[in-house]
């Protein structure tokens, strides 16, 4: 079975980013789908790529499970190796459909922090960064107002949500985030430009892959292809991947004074 996974690097230009966070790096893993469709070695390769990159923060955005609970017994062992004091996770629809409690036990057992409709404020490089976690929006277990309640206004805001369209609910609350990291779509899995986008849009999924804006001036979204799959291993133009996002202060609107 194919164990290849690639590390894709992106630069996220954020207006008004705290200067201390300029250059901060975030690792992103999603859709591991431990089970017979996803080779265990591919998962270990994904962890190894991120561990070697030494990001400041690691974010895992759900669908650790596939279709049966038995493979979850090896989930913690497969995902161990990321920094325990700066790795956070949320759950996806497959996790709730299979066994959310076991997924949570496995990941907390190796030291990772579950953000279940809540946030955590970190001091990174001398400035506050708020990591906000939504429970799975696909199965309607997310509670945006609860997760956003009490998030300090000052500081960088990063949202973990299994499905990227959740950002719209943040904006409806009159809140903002600088970046949302998500998975769920597998980059289309079998991706035919135009056709796949149109089909997924009919399901309400307008953001399928890569780094993009939620709307013209909205927050940045990173939607990864993910590592595995639950049903079919076939992928077309959607290679398995993990992301490494570098935050940069966007100075495009600042006049040059020499």
UniProtKB/TrEMBL annotation:
Keywords: Hydrolase, Metal-binding. Residues 24-187 form the Calcineurin-like phosphoesterase domain. GO terms for molecular function: metal ion binding; UDP-2,3-diacylglucosamine hydrolase activity. GO terms for biological process: lipid A biosynthetic process. Signal peptide: none annotated. GO terms for cellular component: membrane. It holds the Pfam family Metallophos. This is Phosphoesterase. The lineage of its organism: Bacteria, Pseudomonadati, Myxococcota, Polyangia, Nannocystales.
């Amino acid at each position: 079975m194919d164990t290849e996974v690639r590390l894709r690097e992106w630069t996220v230009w954020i207006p008004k980013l705290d200067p201390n966070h300029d250059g901060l790096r975030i690792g992103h893993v999603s859709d591991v789908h431990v089970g017979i469709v996803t080779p265990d070695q591919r998962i270990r390769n994904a962890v190894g790529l991120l561990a070697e990159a030494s990001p400041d923060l690691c974010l895992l955005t759900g669908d650790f499970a596939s279709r049966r609970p038995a493979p979850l017994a090896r989930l913690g062992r497969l995902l161990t190796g990321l920094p325990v004091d700066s790795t956070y996770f949320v759950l996806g629809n497959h996790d709730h459909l299979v066994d959310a409690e076991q997924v949570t036990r496995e990941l907390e057992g190796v030291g990772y922090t579950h953000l279940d409709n809540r946030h955590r404020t970190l001091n990174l490089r001398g400035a506050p960064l708020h990591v906000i976690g939504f429970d799975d929006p696909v199965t309607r277990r997310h509670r945006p107002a609860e997760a956003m309640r009490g998030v300090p206004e000052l500081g960088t805001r990063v949202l973990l949500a299994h499905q990227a369209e959740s950002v719209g609910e943040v904006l409806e609350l009159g809140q903002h985030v600088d970046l949302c990291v998500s998975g769920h779509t597998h980059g289309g899995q079998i991706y035919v430009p135009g056709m796949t986008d149109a089909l997924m849009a009919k399901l309400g999924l307008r953001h399928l892959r890569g780094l993009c804006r939620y709307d013209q001036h909205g927050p940045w979204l990173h939607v990864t292809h993910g590592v595995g799959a639950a049903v079919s291993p076939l992928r077309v133009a959607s290679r398995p991947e993990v992301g490494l996002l570098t935050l940069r202060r966007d100075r495009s609107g600042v006049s040059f004074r020499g």
